[in-house]
Structures are given as C-alpha cells and as structure tokens.
Amino acid sequence: MNSIDAYVSGVISGDIVACRWVRLACERHEKDRNTEDFAYRFDDEQAYKAINFIQLLPHTKDKWAARNEKLHLEPWQCFVVGSIFGWVRKSDGLRRFREAYVEVPRKNGKSHIAAGIGIKCMVADDVHGAEVYAGATTEKQAWEVFRPARIMAKNTPGLCDSFGIEVNASNLLRLRDFARFEPLIGNPGDGASPSCAIIDEFHEHDKPDLYDTMLTGMGARENPLMFIITTAGVNVSGPCFEKRVEVQKMLNGSVPSDRLFGAIWTLDECDDWTQPGSWAKANPNLGVSVSTDYLEAQVAQAVRQPSKQNTVKCKHFNLWTGAKQAWLNMESWRRCGDSALKRADFAGDPCYVGLDLATRIDIAARLDVFIRHIDGRIHYFAFPKFYLPESALDSAKNADVYRGWATSGQLDIMAGDEVDFAEIQAETLSLADEIMLKEFAYDPWQATQLAQAVREQGVETVEFRHTVGNMSPAMREVEAAIASGRFHHNDNPCMNWMASNVVAKADAKDNIYPRKELPENKIDGMIALLMAVGRAMTTQDDVAAFNAFLRSATTR
Q: Of 284, 317, 350, which marks where a domain is finished?
C-alpha cells in the first residue's frame, strides 16, 4: 500500500489520530476514488511524480540541512501534495483542484511544502511561461516561502542545469520561456497572470485583495493552482476564516465543491488542549519536526500565564480564538436527512408553519413541520420552501450557489427586485386546504399584514417574536430531537447550508440564541424551523397538560 492510501485508510479506521475535518477529507478522497461515474480520477503516477520531485529537494534549516538531507514528505504531506497533483479531469487530464486550502500549526513543515510546490509548478507542470508567486501582506512573510525555495534551487545544481533555472536575488527565472518564481507583497495590481499563487499565513490578511487579484489573473491559465497554507488566526471577519468556513461546508457536504481541496489539522470541539492525547490531531508532524517536549513546555507556560493561552491554542493547536462554535454537528444533521420524504405523505398529520421574511431583497423561508407520535415520542418532519427575487441572482454574494439551487428546483425565483409576499400568502392559503394546518407562526416585523390575510381565511396565526425566551427552548428541542433520532428533514441543500451557518450565542443563564457570523451566511430557514418547532412544542405541552388533568380528574 502506498503512503497516500495508507494515510487515508489509517485516518478512516482510526489507527491514525485525526480530527473530524481531516477524517472528512480522507473519506471524501476514498468516496470519490470509488465513484465510477465521477468526472475526475485519481492518477497515482501524477501524484507520486510530484511527491518524488519535491523529495529531490534539500532541507534548508535545522539538523536536516546540516546533514545535507533531502526532504522527506510525511504521509499527511503526501496526502496533500498527492491530492493536489493526482486528481485530474477524465476528459482532458487537467488538474481537478484549482484551489487548495491547508491549515496546519507552526513547526509542521508547511513552508517547505509550499516552496516545493512552487518550484514544481514553475518548471515541471507542463506550463510555458509559468508565473509562480509567493504572496503575503509583508515582505518578511512573502520570503518565508520564497527563501527556502531559493535556497533549494541554489543548493541543487542538477535541478538548475536540467530546467535552466537562474537563481537571482529576488526571483528564480528560466530565460528560455521567462518562467519565474518570486515573492509578492500586498496588493499586486492587475498585471499578474499566475499559473500558481501561494498564499502563506492567509490569516494575516485583513482584506481579500491579493487573493482576488491572483484568482482573477488566473483566468487566462489552463491549469492554474491557488495554494493557501496557513495557521489559524483571530480575525473571524477576514478572508481566511471565510475560506475556512467554505472548506468546512465542502467537507461536511453542506455546499459541495469538486474543484476545492481542503484539509484542516486542529482539535475537535470536545478535546482538552492541555491533554497530550489529542495533540497529534492538530500536529501531524508530532515526533518529527514538532516535539512533545516543546508542546508540553508551551502548554505549561500557558496554564501558568492565562494571557498566553490564546496564542498557544491558536498557533500550536489551530484553534481560532475569535471564532464562535457552530450550533449543530452537521454530520448528525445530515443523518436526519431523507430525500425520499414527501410533504404529501403527511397531509393527515398536524402541521405547524414558520415564516421568516427577514428581507424583501434576499432569501425568504417557510418551514412546514409535521408532527407524528411514534413509540410515545414526538417526531418532527420538516419541509422547507425558499423564495428569492430574480435580481438577487446577479447581485447577491451567494448568487452562484443560488443559481444552482434554482436550477435544481430547491429555490423559487420570483420576478422583480423583491420577494412577493402576496405569492407566499396565496401558497400558504392553498396549503391550508391540502393539509392539517394547526398554526401559522410569524414574526410581526415583516409579516403582520400577511398573517392578517391568512387569519381571515380561518387559519390560526400566532405571533412568534425572535426573543431568547422563544428561541432557546426551540433550539434545545431541535438539538435533542436530532440526537435521539426524532428529527427528520428532506435533505434540501439550501436548508443544509443554512443549518451549517447557525452559531449559538449563550447568555449567563445558559439560554442560547441563533446567530450568523457573516451577513452572507443566511439562516432564514433555520429561524423559520425554530418558530414552527417552538409553536409545536407549546401546543403539545398544552395537550399533554390537559390530558394529565383529565386523567387526574377521573381518578378522584
């Protein structure tokens, strides 16, 4: 078994200690490799061609450089490099992954990986006139990747002779086609046409300027690569954390992306960062370039000096110290999904409708939640409906994703610039004729007029304000229902995405409230779900109390 397969199988089996994000990355690799009708294939020859090329390069620091040793890629590094270069499109053999995001703590050899990939893309990627840039916010950081690449080339005369590389003070250059590898600082302007862009320590970027310029500059390239390698940071409003969230959503299946590779070495939510048993999850080079003694010393100091804890957690265990935790475990949420569920099969069951009309110019949501009593317990069956004005397909930040859902019929597009409340009203009234609609829950901020029209048609309407007192019990009930197998949904991709966007804000009394970290991370469907579940809970409690009263009265 080769090193990539051994690593993937070891992670999946549990023989190799890994966090959930690395496990999901390995499971994705294994699933894709065994999918016959997939548009891409894994080419072992191309993968190991890249790995072997990098392993011909020398170490540039520490004891390995002193002994003139060549790079040796550890299994996790082989997985990263092999995935980037081994996955190709079946139709033309071009690289599958145009973008790769790797998050790993300090001292795990990330700069050497980046330098090796940069040299490979400059001279051995079948690209005429390759342009490879090591981009960063400061000159010092840009040179963290370029310096080892320059030293590697300078100390490998055979490499320079074979590929015609000229080692200059500020770049590597090949004169026959003017291929080059050089550092790039700050906003580069619009002149670059990178075949490979390496962004080191992306968490230090306050704005996406460099990333955006590099990405747009790749438009003319046939087989480009954006390679982001970084530690965790503290700026959860920055472009790095946004990319991290995108990778997480890709890995957990919320928003699939076949052209994005991602792997995040960090601790799981339940891990205690002070306990050595979990350190290997975040530090795949533990025992190689990261010593247990070193981490023990760092952790001990942080325990003694709480002011240092955030730094240690961030830089040595890849914990974003400014980040909020996602409310739901998306693996558990996805297990509750069943695309075979049909709303029509529940026409005879009590239904509670929640409606969230947060804005007229972006997505709006209606959730139909049906109730069934199975083995003495309440089960919830959720069916979402989403609405979007046509103009948002061009203007919204999530426009590309919205178009995909619209094409697949998961998102209703309304003509014009605003959500048509009258159309939603008509649909709701039509729904009341088809099912056992018990209650219609609405937030008075936007839906008062619509609710009045529905009420006039004989439907019970209930005002449901978005307060902690209303939301917290509903969130706890959804948590419990998911954990116990009492919650079911029809696996709508838009709803899955919104579920992954919810973060829980807790108060001093352990009440929780749904929030989103970024404006574009919509949660409207989950708000509507909580409204419906909140009313279903209240009604069921009332019924239970009434039945208990009747039982007590008959026994007196």
A: 317
